[in-house]
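Throughout our pipeline, every protein is held as a single compact record rather than as scattered files. The record that follows is passed on verbatim for readers who wish to inspect the format.
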Amino acid sequence: MNRFRALALLLAAAATLTSCDENAVQEIAGPATGARIRFFNFGVNAPGVNFYADNTKMTAISSTTGTESTTGVAYGAVGSGGFYGVIAPGQHTFTGRIAAATDKDLPISSVTTTLENGKSYSYYQSGFYNTTAKTVEAFVVEDPFAETIDWSVAYVRFVNAISNANPMTLYVKHQTSGQETAIGAAAAYKSASAFVAVPNGVYDLATRYAGSSSNAIARTGVSFSAGRVYTITARGDITVTSTTATNRPFLDNTVNR
């Protein structure tokens, strides 16, 4: 078969597939419809979990054997690499369920909430894991960032997921200009600030209690790129003073877009 005949056959096959409704190529260029949600395991000492919406699994980790890993989303991690999952708008019960073989699929956190079409949300396991009751707290916040990309600035907001911390304000200081910006008002536990525009650059981060000039939590050298949207979340145990402990207070940086 020469190359011209082969090309003709390929074009004919493509035309056949295009004309057949059930085999037609889907148009995926537009935005996905529905609500969007992602999941964080920030419950101190909580086991690894898989996250569910009602009875539908939203996150899971594959092992090298091709079967589901029993690790799940570990403490300090975000499910699905930080990407949002699309879900039908409406009321849902979200749960974090143990991924390990022991107590497999036991729900340890749960929130029932209503999601709106076209909006984005984040589910946080938070607080301290109760090893007796096998429960941990959780909450959901909306992620109300603009869909239109502004290439001149980055947008940053703050979420407080530390149950034993007072309301805190996040401050970001540009390492080059020295300009410090407050990211919204003080955020209490289980709440979030508004998104605030900041110039492109590398920043030092700190949270402070109202009326205090001392840093409650600090982190240096965090890059914010113009055109991107970021959530900085405080997690851990505010009473821990170690700089290496897994449960130390920490400022997590995750990209929304």
